[in-house]
Amino acid sequence: MKVLLICEKNFGRCFDKILVVDRAKAKISVLRDKMYNQIAWLLAKTLDASGIERIVLMGRKWQINHFEGYLDKGLRNEIAKKQLPLLMH
After folding, report:
1. Which helix (H) or strand (E) holds 80?
2. What global pTM score does this model have?
3. Residue 55 backbone zone (phi > 0: left; psi -120 to 50: alpha; other: beta)
């Protein structure tokens, strides 16, 4: 099993010139982007390995649209339905 270890060193010096207040937000944004890319990649690998041909994305509309942007074009074509959850809090 491969594990992705994310630490300060992975950011390099790209955050040194950002104000301290905004530095944490910028790092979180980078981590969130990496996470969505990793999830989309893992989903593509899982679908390829399992032979699943269609997927259903569930969540709030903005969440579905946001995550869909991380999927490659081939995977976007396999989306059968975009479903809002039955119980919205």
Report:
1. strand 79-83
2. 0.67
3. beta
